[in-house]
Amino acid sequence: MKPGQFEQHAIPANGMSAQSISTAFDQMSTQDVRWRDGKAFSLAYNAGPDVLAVAEEAYRRFSGANALNTAAFPSLRQMQGEVLEMAGVWLGSTTNSAGYFTSGGTESILMAVKAARDQFRSDSSITHPNIVLPTSAHAAFDKAAAYFSVELRRVAVLPNWRADVAGMAAAVDQNTIMIVGSAPQYPQGVIDDIPELAALAQRRGVNCHVDACMGGVSLAYLGRLGYQIPPWNLQVDGVTSISVDLHKFGYTSKGASVIMYANKRLRSFQGFFTDQWLGGIYASSGMLGTKSGGAIAAAWAVMHFLGDDGYLRLTRSARVATEKLAQHITTHPHLSLLAQPDALLLSFVANEPTRLNVYAVADEMWKRGWYIDRQEPPQSLHCTVNAVHETVIDDMLADLDSCVSIALDTGMSGDVGAYGTLS
């Protein structure tokens, strides 16, 4: 090796066999969380091996198909359209509604912000737009603001962790283009007052986006299961756009989300078009150009495989596990819920942080194979509960109690985790 060079992984001189590659995958993944066994309370969603098999086969069959141009792949155009229609039922769409399939909640949020910026630039010549949102709204709005030069005005939430509508109203001015609410918000799992936020948006003549990436599927079915779910979707007057992730509680493969607008004109500001290229006309609906058809096919396949009754069953299972976890923490001598869960998310803290470091509890849980998100402020642990957890929740609670005892005895300091990394 020459001076100054660094050792790096080089492409093999000769190709590896398929078996060797499979063996390498097995070796590399030995330390990964066993999400298929229900050990992950974040990042992965599992409705069972039969659903996973359907999703993975559909993704495999269409992984090489390019959804950039569905004229060449009319199968993807058909599947995408039908996925949007099915998701639209959950989101309260009307005959005027129109949406797009995106790669995830972050892209859906980015596109909602981009569309609002361009809409108000066209309609009112606003050149320094701002968005008013609670501190609980997803970090993807910060990414959108950085990408599209939009000012964010984050307003502190109420003591119950919900959006402070009055505080947000005070932050609105002549350059505001959007008001944001969540159903539910991620950190504490509660639903913002969407009707009041939408009414505020209507009074001020601005857009109202509902981030239902976490709840767009589960809330639709929890309401049908008899739970008291406040109004949250496009049926609320004043809501102009809403997002839902199908790769979360829709249990489809990663890379599947939907953004739905109240009407086609609002959607028209999302896309990109140019004819200033020697290659001809270029147009795309979102951030991506080339994109695999695998996620579209997997979404279509899983939604048809599960059907309405399947989603009712899975939502019921996830809610049973959520309630069991919430009840356990409510009665725990050393832990407390930050809020009773409105859907399938919850977070909890130590009653006495000087005696118990909840991050140390997470460290101990990880030693037993359980992955739990860490949050702050305040220092808390967050659980996203899905259908697979009903079968393992008793084991998880037993380990949680044991890990709390260990953390109390050892006085360990835990490491701060992150929702995402740049690596």
UniProtKB/TrEMBL annotation:
Q: What is this protein called?
A: Unannotated protein
The compartments listed are: Endoplasmic reticulum membrane
- Single biological process term from Gene Ontology: carboxylic acid metabolic process
What's the family? Belongs to the group II decarboxylase family. Sphingosine-1-phosphate lyase subfamily.
GO CC, any one term: endoplasmic reticulum membrane
Q: What is its main location?
A: endoplasmic reticulum
GO molecular function annotations of the record: carbon-carbon lyase activity; pyridoxal phosphate binding
Pfam families reported in the protein's UniProt record: Pyridoxal_deC
According to Swiss-Prot or TrEMBL, what is its membrane topology? Single-pass membrane protein
Cofactors needed by this protein, per the record, are: pyridoxal 5'-phosphate
Which pathway is recorded for this entry? Lipid metabolism; sphingolipid metabolism; Sphingolipid metabolism
* Entry keyword annotation includes Lyase: yes
List the SUPFAM superfamilies hit by this protein, alphabetically. Answer: PLP-dependent transferases
The entry's keywords: Endoplasmic reticulum, Lipid metabolism, Lyase, Membrane, Pyridoxal phosphate, Sphingolipid metabolism, Transmembrane, Transmembrane helix
Q: Which residues form a coiled coil?
A: none
